[in-house]
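User: Sequence recovery, please. Input:
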């Protein structure tokens, strides 16, 4: 029986498009952004940044050094945030319902630049202070210093909440993250965004899993 649900953020709750960031960096002269960062893999500098092991300032400095291209901070942040799209109203309303039936958590590989951008959007559009208002607790890679698909990342959430893997469902749009959760016997569901489905399709009108 599922008692707990762990949601990924990008591609599950928040709409994202990696291609938009790649295109913006191409406009700035970086033609091979995909070789540094994609949904499936990323270079060491992004790992460090998403684990909160370097500051935003150090990330920008290292990214300029790695690519050999000089971006000003504003240009870099704008291109980096271009992948962040919208958080549909129906998903906000769904999560508010789901929260009444399950303990729900957010587990995201993210970073302080993205976090500030989508939190500002949430405040402006919905009047919510942060995503924590939609979940029982948020877990961000740059705050817990762990990233999916590391099994330790999922174990951190289980231990912190004192919940059982077999009573927990993890929803993500990346197959490598699903495999990481499976190592701990967490029940999983891979969102296939190519089929134009979303978390709305997983729950009934009351917010219970179908």
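Assistant: Recovered sequence (210 residues):
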């Amino acid at each position: 029986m599922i008692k707990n649900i762990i949601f990924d953020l990008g591609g599950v709750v928040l709409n994202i498009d990696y291609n938009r960031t790649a295109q913006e960096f191409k406009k700035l002269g970086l033609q091979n952004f995909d070789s540094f960062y994609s949904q499936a893999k990323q270079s060491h500098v992004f790992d460090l940044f998403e684990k909160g092991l370097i500051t935003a300032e150090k990330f920008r400095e290292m990214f300029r050094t790695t690519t050999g291209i000089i971006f000003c901070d504003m240009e870099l942040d704008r291109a980096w945030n271009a992948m962040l799209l919208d958080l549909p109203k129906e998903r906000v309303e769904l999560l508010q319902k789901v929260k009444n039936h399950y303990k729900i958590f957010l587990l995201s590989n993210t970073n302080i630049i993205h976090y500030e951008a989508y939190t500002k959007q949430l405040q402006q559009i919905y009047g919510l202070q942060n995503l924590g208002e939609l979940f029982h607790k948020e877990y961000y890679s740059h705050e817990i210093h762990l990233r999916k698909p590391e099994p330790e990342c999922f174990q951190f959430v289980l231990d912190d909440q004192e919940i059982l893997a077999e009573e927990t469902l993890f929803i993500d749009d990346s197959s490598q993250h699903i495999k990481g959760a499976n190592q701990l016997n967490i029940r999983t569901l891979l969102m296939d965004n190519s089929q134009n489905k979303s978390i709305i399709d997983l729950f009934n009108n009351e917010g219970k899993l179908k």
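The longest strand covers residues 103-108.
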